[in-house]
Amino acid sequence: MKGTDRGRSAGTGALCVLAAALLWGTTGTAATFAPDVGPLAIGAVAMGLGGLLQALIAAPQIAAHSHRLRNQRGTVLLGAVSVAVYPLAFYSSMHLAGVAVGTVVSIGTAPLASSLIERVVDGRRLTRRWTLAAALGLLGTALLCVAEATHATDGTGHTSLAGTLLGIALGLVAAATYALYSWAAHRLITRQIPSRAAMGAVFGLGGRLLVPVLLATGAPLLASWSNAAVGTYMALVPMLAGYVLFGWGLAHVPASTATTLSLLEPAVAAVLAVLVVGELLPAAGWLGIALVIACLAVLTTPTPTRGQSRNNPVDHYGGPPREAADAVPSGEHRTRRS
């Protein structure tokens, strides 16, 4: 594949991930419109129902690639368990520490987890550009965390210090599981499994694991039309549509890049928490959002390709040359070699 074609493909993948992150950024604010529904029920209906719907839509592709999926069952299972744990930790983190800080910690620390997984398991070399972008993003998320934690202890916040700290801890669990299922899905895609089949299998099995949690905690979702509307929105828009976009993105960029691009989500969540929910964000928090935006600008601005070897194209969005990308995926995103 030519360097320009690879750069265009990576750009498309980056835009898909950013669109998914934009949708995900609305989940914390949407959850506040169903205050009687606990975080476990919100997480279970969002990821559980959304995952089952994703598997249903992808059923033909899953069946067509069932043999390859069985050969990668360990990766599928790891991704599914991570999918099941992630929303329970994520929404509990937002419930305890607030929408902004819960989202910031959960998504903001995921790039580090992703890079560690790719470095240890895949031996991937991370570029200076990715390192700069991740540093800006992590600094921004740290500022948001400090701003929220300080607000929680000054007597005006809605959360206690203990609740904020527990929320941060659960956010770290969410970050680790987010990185794991992103890596698992990307690994399946680079093994000749189309993104729709890979995402449908991982999220469908993860959704099945969440069904018992939904049955045990989901009664309040049926208590009013507003609660049901929130649950339906969460399952269909940010989860179903968002993760379809995310799967398309993972077909073109590595998981470490995708999780870094997802830093748009906490910025969106923080702004919505201020404008819609009425949370207060100190100046340090706004500076953190600005740094996150700078991180995205560094990561998504195309780099010049002059002088680049035709036989050794680089990955413009963080990471070494990716030979596996030329084989991803067979039906949906196949590109002929030049």
Kindly describe this structure:
- The chain is mainly alpha-helical.
- It is built from 15 helices and no strands.
- It is globular.
- The model is unreliable at 307-338 (pLDDT under 50).
How is the secondary structure organized here?
Blueprint: H1 3-24, H2 27-31, H3 39-57, H4 59-64, H5 66-71, H6 73-97, H7 99-108, H8 110-122, H9 128-153, H10 161-189, H11 195-217, H12 225-250, H13 255-261, H14 264-277, H15 283-300
Helix pairs in contact: 1-12, 1-14, 3-6, 3-11, 3-12, 6-7, 6-10, 6-11, 7-9, 7-10, 7-14, 8-10, 8-13, 9-10, 9-15, 10-11, 10-13, 11-12, 14-15
Bin the helical content: over 70%
Query: Per the principal axes of the C-alpha atoms, what is the gross shape?
Result: globular
Uncertain segments of ≥5 residues (pLDDT<50)? 307-338
Strand content bin: under 5%
Q: Structural class, please?
A: mainly alpha
